[in-house]
Amino acid sequence: MAEAADFQGTSPSPARRLLRRAGTLLAGAPLLAGLLQLPAASSAQAVGQDAVRTASGSGTVAVALDSLTPGAPSDGDTVTVAGTVTNNGKQAVTDAHVGLRVGPELNTRSDIDAVARRTGFEPGADGDEVGGKYVQKFASLGPGAAQHFSISVPVDKLNLGGNGVYEFSVSLSGRTTAQPWEQVLGIQHTFLPWQSSDADTKTKTTFLWPLISSVHMTAETGPGEQQTPVFLNDDLAKEISPGGRLQQMLSLGKDLDVTWVIDPDLLASVDAMTRNYRVRNPKGGNPLPGTHQAVAKQWLAELQQAVTGKEVVALPFADPDLASLAHNGTSVTGSLSQLRDATDVAASTVETVLHVKPDTDFSWPVDGAVDPSIVKVATSAGADKVIARSDSLEETGGLTYTPSAARPIGGGTTAVVADERLSTAFEDDMTGAGTTTLAVQRFLAQSLELDGQTSKQRSIVVAPQRMPTASQAQAMAQALTALQQSTWSQPQDLAAAAKAKPDPGATTRLPSTADYPSSLRKRELDRSAFAAIARTQDKVDNFKVVLTDESRVVTPFGRAMNREMSVSWRGRDGEAESFRDGVEAYLDDLSQQVKLIDKSETKLSGRSATIPVTVQNNLVQGVDHLVLRLTSTNPTRLKIGGKAYSEQPVTVSGGHSQSVKFTTSANANGRVTVVAQLYTQDGQEYGDPVSFDVKVTEITATVMLVIGGGVLLLVLAGFRMYTQRKRAAAREETEAAQDGRDGDEGRDAQDPDGEQDPDGEQDAGSGQNPEGPADRLEKKESDTRPREGDPEQASDPTPDTAAENADPSGTGEKVDR
User: Fold this and answer.
1) 506 closest CA partner among 409, 598, 589, 431
2) Which of 147, 214, 483, 754 has the fewest CB atoms in 10 Å of its CB?
3) Which UniProt keywords apply (predicted)?
4) What is the dihedral of CA 552, 555, 558, 562, to 10 degrees?
5) 423 touches 463 (CB < 8 A)
């Protein structure tokens, strides 16, 4: 069966075309004979058909098809159809019944699309009722009333022809007061794939089963050695809990033949939840303790078991948005390095958590939309296979069938082109049973129609939406279970599909960048997002060089920057910006834990002094490879270490402070501003500078001269006083000796009556000079002479000079002149 609507100029395969034409001729022969006998139909019949057609278009009754089992029947099966009919009109429906209709076989995949779009009843196209006992009757269906129905019919009663896809409809017929004749008042179209036995050639089908989530972990960690992670919220716990989206994906996927496509960030996040973790407090304040360790452990244990022996494809860490990077990020330095880093860490993360070796050779742009720039970026980190989709890499070669997925697109790169119809079959809301049943039947119909296009065996890939809801996952599993039980398909790994021999006529030409869908482009991360990531990376590089254990910073912030590029931010610009700002702010806060302590004004009194500057480290780990520079803004007045600035290496243990001392020399009085700044060893500034004033009160040479002169004068005055006293003492001794000699002479000159010699009086008188130093000394000594009534002191000597004693001199006393 060909895809005539998909590829212009195509037609069904020759063998099937001949069979169908023969069947049409045989079926039309009796009709042709009748037409020859009855040239025209009666006018009454024509009026009746018009009335039925008009009534059916009103959609008075809604028909919901809740289940159809089996979805792909084979010989001997009984088809059971169940659902609900609801009267949406204002009149009661009487003589109502639900019936089954089998339409003609559909020849192309486009025919299936056309039937799926039809909502009304078309008498010729929708076939006749199976009738008989295979109906369910209702006496009346009032306005707004709903009735459940269930009809079972053996497949051999459906009068199916050869293998293929048939239109299959469920209709409600009845009468109304306004139109009191039997008519179809509601109908629901679906499909019945019919393959009575194993197909001669089975299609190899690869179904990707994605385990991908949005970003949940922040860059923040708790204080202490353990680095307790902090989550944005507790949504991941909901997803992996029973009934949650990821729990459903795991529970359903473990029983299917699928290729697991996993984001390593999801594994890292759930693994972090198995230990102590914290969740941001929505009311603000400190993060709250996480409480879902048991759920996380259970989910990981089940996943480890599910992937054992299965193919696992690891996407780059956090599932980076390749199209956004290609269109907006490559002009920002370092963006491609982020992708390489995310790719490098992917394998180790999966191996550590799941204990399986993943395939990292595949990249997966959003919705499989590709252009040359996306492919270039996707393969820049080492992947050589790009998962594309057929609505992006469209066929232009005139093939009459859907080619195999693998396409060589140059440069050693293979595009693995997923089938667009099969891949998008479950993107609608699947919460209702009716929409799920229709999606499953359409998926099976497209798969069988594809298989019947040619006798060549092909490899087909199904790449569904990245993050299916729980109901979408259930619909996917239902369809895949039926497909794997079918007679026309067999499962295949993605790696095998990529290695399959390409169809020579399949297109390998990539669409231009201008052809990238605008609906996808306007949801991309813009250039400012990548500029913010680059700015954060620069800060990490500047911070890590001073750390003794850089992994405590490089690893969490490296993963956080990977998360900033995630596909999950598409359409969430505000949340994405908030996440990026949070990462950068937290990094700034950490780096500021190593800082200079502010200083107040410092006073220097002297030509040289020491200035201490303190570096504080509030981190858990030590810091090293830092240089502290102290700079004088006026080196003419104040020099640091003999020049304008001085530097010293700094090492500070975690949780400690370190004072660094700088010697200074002053040349003049006044105030000088000094700037302290930390640098990394490669000369990059680290942290904010600290400025403070140094007030110099220097002692100049003139002042020193004055002070020196004063000291000299004091010394000279003391020396003079000392010499004066020494001379006075010597004079006193000389005078005392002279007085002794004069006394002796005086006694010799006295007459017997005791009268003094005139010369003696003159000599004695001449010894009393009021201006001489001896007189000053005698006056001082006389002041200390005991007074009448004072007690006698043994230490006081008896005066022995005429000047001190008025009594007559003793015999032999002399007074020298």
Assistant:
1) 409
2) 754
3) Membrane, Transmembrane, Transmembrane helix
4) -140
5) yes
Residue with tokens 């995630």: 566
246 exposed, middle or buried (CB, 10 Å; 0-12, 13-18, 19+)? Answer: buried
pLDDT of residue 755: 41
pLDDT tens digits along 91-150: 999 999 999 999 999 999 999 999 999 999 998 889 999 989 999 999 899 999 999 999
What one-letter code names the amino acid at 615?
V
Could you write out the DSSP letters of every residue in 140-199? EE-TT-EEEEEEEEEGGGTT--SSEEEEEEEEEEEE-SSS-S-EEEEEEEEEEEE--S--
Which uninterrupted H or E stretch holds 289? strand 288-289
* Cβ partners under 8 Å of residue 356, min gap 6: 307, 308, 312, 350
> Is residue 440 a contact partner of residue 479, using CB atoms and an 8 Å limit?
yes
User: Beta-carbon neighbour count of residue 134 at 10 Å?
Assistant: 18
Inter-CA distances, 296 with 234, 486, 538, Å? 12, 36, 35
Asked whether 559 and 583 are in contact (CB, 8 A), the reply is: no
Interaxial angle between packed helices 264-273 and 293-307, expressed in degrees from 0 to 180 and rounded to the nearest 10? 140
Q: Tokens 């990292």 belong to which residue?
A: 360
Q: Which helix (H) or strand (E) holds 139?
A: strand 135-141
Helix axes 335-354, 293-307, angle to 10 degrees: 90
In a 10 Å sphere around its CB, with 0-12 CB exposed, 13-18 middle and 19+ buried, how is residue 535 labelled? Answer: middle
Sequence-distant (6+) residues with CB within 8 A of 449 are: 1, 106, 108, 109, 112, 164, 165
Handedness of CA 514, 518, 520, 526 (dihedral sign): positive
One-letter amino acid of 737: A
Work out the average pLDDT over 199-208: 96
Tell me how far apart the alpha carbons of residues 109 and 1 are, in angstroms, rounded to a whole number.
8
Question: How many beta carbons lie within 10 A of that of residue 802, not counting itself?
Answer: 20
* φ/ψ (deg, to 5) at 660: -115, 125
Please answer whether residues 486 and 195 qualify as being in contact, where contact means their C-beta atoms are separated by less than 8 angstroms.
Answer: yes
Comparison of pLDDT for 810 and 230, the residue scoring more: 230
What angle is formed at CA 242 by the lines to CA 239 and CA 246, rounded to 5 degrees? 35
Residue 723 has pLDDT above 90, yes or no: no
Residue 489 belongs to what H/E stretch? strand 489-491
Contact, 64 vs 84, CB < 8 A?
Answer: yes
Specify the pLDDT at position 398. 83
Structure tokens at 675: 């700037």
Q: Say yes or no to pLDDT of 757 above 90.
A: no
Structure tokens of 59? Answer: 């959609």
Structure token pair of residue 216: 């949940």
